[in-house]
Amino acid sequence: GTLLSRLCLKMLAADSVCFCCFCSSNKILHSHIGGEKLLKRVRRGWMWNQFFLQEEYTGSDYQYIGKLQSDQDHGDGSVKYVLSGEGAGTIFVIDENNGDLHATRRLDREEKAFYVLKATVVNKWTGQKLEPETEFIIKLHDINDNEPKFSKEVYTASVPERSDIGTSVTQVTATDADDTMYGNSAKLVYSISQGHPYFSVEPNTGVIRTALGPGDMDREQREHYQVVIEAKDMGGQRGGLTGSTVVKITLTDVNDNPPHFTQSIYQFRVPESSTSGSVVGRIQATDKDIGKNTEMDFTIISGDGMEMFDISTDKETQEGLVTVRKPLDYEKKPSYTIEIQVQNTQEYVRFVSSGPKDVATVRLAVDDVDEPPVFKKASYLYEVKEDVAVGTVVGSVSAMDPDRARSIVNYSIDRRTDRGHLFNVYPMNGSVFLLKSLDRETTAWHNISVVATELNNPRQSSSVSVYIRVLDINDNAPMFATVYETFVCEKTKAGQRIQTVSAVDADEPSSGHKFAFSLAPEETHHRNFSVRDNGDNTAGILTGRATYSRLHKSVYLVPVVITDDDYPMQSSTGTLTVRVCTCDHEGNMELCKPEALSSSPGLSTGALVAILLCAIILLLVVVLFTALRHQRKQEPLINSKEDVRDNVVSYNDEGGGEEDTQAFDIGALRHPAAAAASDEGAKQRRDIIPTDTLLLMPPIRMAARDNGDVCEFINQRVMENDYSPTAPPYDSLATYAYEGVGSVAESLSSLGSASSEAEQDYNYLSDWGPRFRKLADLYEAEDSDF
Q1: Positive or negative, the Cα torsion across 555, 557, 558, 560?
Q2: % of the chain at pLDDT higher than 70
């Protein structure tokens, strides 16, 4: 108390303001006013700081915590204690009269270790605070009420078999919810309750280790172990709580066991016709290990069949596969014996002994089979000149039956390899001879197959390839390499080269081609041109004089003799075409005859064909366009289904309009009397003669018409056209057609006029414009008459 009081005094000396400092033993009021220090000791306001409460209270009454008391409480009942903070009113309650603090229920430190609350004193009657609100703490004292718990209920671990003593397997960890800072409630010690004597556990760390040596930890004897580890609190002392867990430990395999054959002697039979790589039999060996430690390697270490057989490992079954390495022959050797050995591919030197590997004997018996004939050679190669006579023997093949029966063999040609039937073979001795003449220039090589078949068993046959090379002889004459055509100027120089020619020969002499060029003897006396041999299988064509006349002779044919130097010598005559042309002073051609050179002006054949195709296509387009125009359909006058219209008969013609004075006589409107005289019979169109009577026309009442009775005249014509599709007028379409929806004049259909007897007002015709002015005047006159 004295120390805290001094601390408060020092703090006061550093400042001139007035404040209060609450100490644990006394409440000292320090004031500093106007430089004068006043010290006054007063009694402390609260007599508490923090409370302790034991967890897991089991009593039936409220658990007493402590008492709160203030110096403002004089015992007269005017003071009221008020509690707030964590759990106030629910977990913790205070007697408002005397300050006694109680816990209302059982508390668990592992859920919450302490509670922070606040208390104050107020006047019971006025509610005024008598002391400032002060904070205090209620701490829970821990008891050992929680057993240790492991992080897993079951652990799994593994360790290699034959491990040394003390090899770490795994580590288990347990925790205790009790307070580690208070007593030994959370101090844990590990022990093993099940798993002796194979494993042990470190008491403080929980590390599990092997407890036996390599000889006792053998997977092949026991693979799985179940160990129970316990963790005890209170440092392992008596009365502590215990938790346990299970650890499942598996010994992993190491290659500590060599493989062994299931039997010491194996016997197999193999047909002599087995091809290379054929499987003869399977060798089984066992290994106590598992996984990769069971992978085996089989080898042949001795025996007379080391060159004829081989052995390998089936990667899926780990069996030894004995296979044929070379072709077998029962007649040469009917049986073989080999010694085989097996070992692991991955050996663990620490455990595998250095003794001998497991060895077994394999006996192989070769079975005799009926084999096809066998040729002495895998293939045959012969050469023949192309001029040999038909029937000449090219070469021979030989085959024999390898069986002991030694059946007679017949020979034949596989015609699929000789579709031209150029060769044949003697069936008894295998001699191949010619059936037709050969030509090296056509085919230089012939590849045929000769088939050998057993006479007693035709199903047994074999074939061999025979390659025949045709040798060249000089049977083709050399000729120009291409068709040569050139020109010569009318004015030139004698001895000027106008063309260089070369030659080709279908033959292929061993020393190469050597050609000689010369002018044909019959041309030498003309002296128009000469030939100069260049010595390199080419020759130059030279002019024989200085002037030529295109008018006198426009084309010269120069014969050139080409000769080779092979035996027998061959020669031919090639013709060079020389045209005479007019040239400029530099020797450039200016004019030849139109047929002289291909460079003459004009269109090529391809250009003419293209022009002709374009013309045909253009003609087809015009014809198609014209046909489409003729087939164009006339659109209907009325599209709407609801339109009311007359029965209009279309005659595919059109009225002449106001200028047409022949189609309809307008004078009938002006002189009705004259028109009545001509209306004795039914009116007919002048351009159509009706053939059938479509309607039975009712009798038409002919009313007497006075001059100017235009209305009666129009009504008469309306009735005639209502009942007769062939009745005039000529321009009936223009007169009675429907003008369409939206027309200012609406419909002029005569259908309405024929069926309606009501009077109509035609004054609106005056609003239609000058084109309807005359019609409006007519109807106005009619109304005035009525």
Answers
A1: positive
A2: 75
Closest CA to 281 of 392, 363, 381: 363
H or E stretch covering 609: helix 605-630
Residues in the chain: 786
Residue that has been written with the tokens 């000149």 in this structure:
385
For the chain, how big is the Rg over CA atoms in Å?
Answer: 67
Instruction: Choose among 318, 321, 316, 315: nearest CA to 362.
Output: 321
Residues paired with 461 in a beta bridge: 453
Expressed in percent and rounded to 5, the helix, strand and coil fractions of the chain are 15, 35, 50
pLDDT score recorded for residue 502? 95
For residue range 707-724, list pLDDT tens digits in order.
456 788 888 888 777 776
Q: Where are the beta strands (DSSP E) in 212-264?
A: 224-232, 242-252, 260-261
Q: Which residues, in sequence order, are bridge partners of residue 396?
A: 431
Instruction: Of 187, 152, 158, give the one whose Cα is nearest residue 173.
Output: 152
53 pLDDT tier (thresholds 50, 70, 90) = confident
Residue 261 tokens, joined: 């054959």
Q: What is the pLDDT of residues 612-646, one digit of tens each?
A: 999 999 999 999 888 888 776 544 544 444 444 44
Q: One-letter amino acid identity for 733? A: L
Residue 490 has pLDDT above 70, yes or no: yes
Spatial distance between the Cα atoms of 570 and 504, rounded to a whole number of angstroms: 12
φ and ψ at 624, to 5 degrees? -65, -40
pTM of the predicted model as reported, rounded to 2 decimal places: 0.43
**Secondary structure string (H, E, C) spanning 414-463:** CHHHCCCCCEEECCCCCEEEECCCCCCCCCCEEEEEEEEEECCCCCCEEE
Alpha-carbon distance 12 to 37, whole Å? 9
Strand order in the sheet with 393-396: 393-396, 431-434, 423-425
Q: Average pLDDT of 536-558?
A: 91
Strands across the sheet with 296-303, in order? 265-271, 358-367, 335-344, 296-303
